[in-house]
Amino acid sequence: EIYRCDWSSDVCSSDLSGAEVTAAGDVNVSASSSLKPLEIISPFVKEVETGLDVTTLAIGAAVGSGGDAGAGSATINVISPITRASIGSGANVDAGGDVAVTATSDIKMVDVAGALGITLGTGKEKGSGVGIGLNVGVHTATTEAVIEGGTVVAPTTIKAGGNVIVDADAKDAFFQLAVNAGAGDSTSGAGSLNVLVNITNTRALVNDDLNDQTTGVATIDATGSAEVAAVSHTDIESYAGSLGASLSGSAVGISVGVVVDLDDTLALVGDGTDVTAL
Is residue 105 a contact partner of residue 81, using CB atoms and an 8 Å limit? Predict the structure, then answer.
């Protein structure tokens, strides 16, 4: 993999704007990001493994003997990864093998919230039990693999003895579970709420900036194949359950699940691009 670095500031970038690259083999420009749940290990006996992998776990409990008892738990996750691999404007790349620009994102979130509120009256004393659980997940992600166009004076030129590949691949998996119970001698209630907002942009672009105009001039010359591909996959599981129990008064259980999923997946070769694939 090739990076352009500013050693004075100790910063490296995969943006090869104006770069001159010659390689006898392959040239790979790649970017990747991932988020994985971790297994819960017992805080008391670390050798004991639970086998439960979670991103966030919140559990609350309250037990009373005559008065009111209430418990609540909430998980909130907001993540906004940007994963971008690019060959910049005006670059000249000559490879004996493949030229590949790839961006991959693999996100998995597992959120569990549970609450138990219970009270048992003694004598004439009566109390209510309330349990409330909330899961909120917000995921906004951009995954881009880009070959930018140059100018007429300094066009972007890609020559490969093998294949030219521009590939953006995003995988998202979400699991939400909220289970709550409220029990008491008088009025009791339980509520569960799952909210998930997932907004993704997965793009494989050659010489286009998505603003109704090309980014300039680009030439792709491959002895093998030319591939521009964008793939997006989203898997969502959302479960909410509530139990409200009362020995004498009213009992209420409410469960709500809200999912907003907006995915934009685009593979595009813009105007002003000359592509030859043998």
Answer: yes
What is the spatial distance between Cα 219 and Cα 274, in angstroms, rounded to a whole number?
A: 5
- Alpha-carbon distance 222 to 98, whole Å? 8
Question: pTM score, two decimals?
Answer: 0.80
CA torsion sign for 51, 259, 267, 11 is negative
Calculate the CA dihedral of residues 141, 142, 145, 147 and round it to 10 degrees.
-170
Could you tell me if 189 and 139 are in contact, meaning their C-beta atoms sit under 8 angstroms apart?
A: no
Query: Which are the contacts of 231, defined by CB distance < 8 A and separation ≥ 6?
Result: 167, 168, 169, 170, 202, 265
Nearest to 16 by CA among 152, 202, 157, 227: 157
* Contact criterion met (CB below 8 Å) for 158 and 219: yes
- Whether 93 and 148 have beta carbons less than 8 Å apart is answered as no
39's tokens: 């297994």
* Phi, psi values for residue 116, rounded to 5°: -135, 120
Tokens representing 192 are 């569960």
Give strand pairing partners of 260: 197
Question: 44: pLDDT confidence band, cut at 50, 70 and 90?
Answer: low
Residue with tokens 């998980």: 75
- Cα separation, 155 vs 274, in Å, equals 11
Q: What is the pLDDT of residues 134-159, one digit of tens each?
A: 899 999 999 999 999 888 888 899 99
Q: Could you identify the residue written with the tokens 């070769």?
A: 269
pLDDT digits (tens, 9 = 90+) for 11-25: 665 555 667 788 888
Q: What is the DSSP letter of 90?
A: T
User: CA 121 from chain center: how many Å?
Assistant: 47
Cβ atoms of 200 and 255 closer than 8 Å: no
Burial 54-80 (b: 16+ CB within 10 A, else e): bbbbbebebebebebbbbbbbbebeee
